[in-house]
Structure formats: C-alpha cells, structure tokens
Amino acid sequence: GMLLQLFAEAPLVQQPLAVAVDGKDGLLLLEQKAGAADETQLVRLRDMDGDGRSDQKDVLRAGLNSARGLAAGREEGIHLLTATELKRVQDADGDGQAETIEEGLVVLEGSVAGQGGGFSGLAWVEPGWLLLGLNAGNAEGLKLRGRDGWVEDAGKEGSIWRVRADGSGLRRMATGLARIGGGGGASLDQVYATDQDPARQLPARVLQVVQDGHYGYREAYAGFRRHPFFAWNGERLGMLPPLSEVGDEPGGVELYRARVDKVGDWWGLPAEWRGSVLVASAGEHRIEALLPLT
To answer: What DSSP state is assigned to residue 239?
Structure first.
C-alpha cells in the first residue's frame, strides 16, 4: 500500500480545489475562500523548517472568479481554468506575486447549465501543450474560441481538447464522454481522463484518450442506457471502451512514472507502482491503482 503524510491542513488552507508543482520551491494550491463560494485564490505552500509539513502560505493571486483547474509549467507560467475560460498568470518580476494575468486564452461561448458544466480538467500533455476537458451538458450552440481567433463547435457531449500554452492551435482530441472528472492526467503520448454517468446508472470509468477517439456516450440517447446507439463499454463499431471501471465520483487521474536522479538512483514510490494509473475516487474516499500487466 501507500503511506499518506499530511502536508497542510486548516487553518493554513481553506477549501483546496487543485494542486500543482512548477519546479520551484513549495506547492501551488488553488483554494476557495471560506464563506465566498465564487472567490478563489492561488497560493504557494512552503515547508520552511524542513519537517515535512507546510508552515508558510504566500498568496500569489487573490480575487480569482470561480477558478476550478490549475496547471503549472517551468517556462509557460501558471494556467487557471474556470467554467468558461482558460487564463494564465505569471510572476514576471520574481516578487512572489502573480501580477500579470492573460485573460481569454480559450473562451467557451454560450450558456451551460447544471453543476459541473463547462470546462473541467486541465493538464499538460507535452511541452507547450495543454489538455482541456469540457462538459457540454447537452447545451445548444456552444463554441470554443482560441486566442488566435480559431472557433470550434463544442458539440453536446463531453470532450477533450488540445491547445498551446498561449491559447493558439485549439483542436478537439476526443468526444463521447458524459461528465469529465475535475482532474486529467497526461504524460507525453499517454493521456487519461475520468468519466461519470450523470444518472449513476452505469459505473464510473477511466479512459485512455487517443486522437479522434469516441467513447460511446451520446446525449441524444442518454435517457435510454440500453439504446443500441449508446455504447458506454465500446459495444458499437468505432466506439472505444474504457480502460477500467473505477469508484464513484472519480476526479484526478495520473500515470505514475518514477524518476531517476543524477547518479542513476530511482526515487518516488516503490518499484511495483511504476507505470500504474492512479485515480482519486471522491465517492469512495480512496485512491485506486490500475497496475500494468507484467
């Protein structure tokens, strides 16, 4: 099994929404301010005395409006995702404050109703490229607009999109998802996403996402789970099956790859976890591991 060690807790942190590591000192955290449902802030947590627990919190950017996703790169800055927009913040002068903000890298045009509607899930897929998850929720006329002016129809099903760090090159990667979890995992050529049946009639699933993949969910037949055009498990020709079923309300998913230090030693989790897909299930209150075949 795994040993989970507490790094930070209330009152130092409030309601955490997403975490990221940007290769600098500390851990980036997106948190919702207590008593302010629509106000979030970006902070950096640090362990100043080396005891393995965070004891310092620096606010990089306050007053963010309903941010729900976070991705950080060494050179590309820190990207934030709301239900309708991808934006980027940067600490240009190194003073610990993210004073520069670029709005509208990608914008969702139209109205999405329902909890969890809009963008959901943000991750790096390769240097310079991001993945976006979109829960369309059967809304009519949704469009995505990139920073370079490129416009795409969003469709009515959940979908995965690729975009450059500056908001250009927006393209659909896959569709046929129902409700994408709040996290996404990507490692070079391997991309993963979690998906939940909104009606809870079918098990939640984790998908290995490929370019132009369709994963079987069709909003037009969502009320008829046994309809021949509905293919949750890849039953129809041209539809792709899930990698596995997972626990209820899946969120973050990550392909774990151990790293090698400068002298050639492995560090990270034990060897048996290398190559596993780790999935956080909020409904089951657990972390699941999909282990590779040996």
So the answer is: P
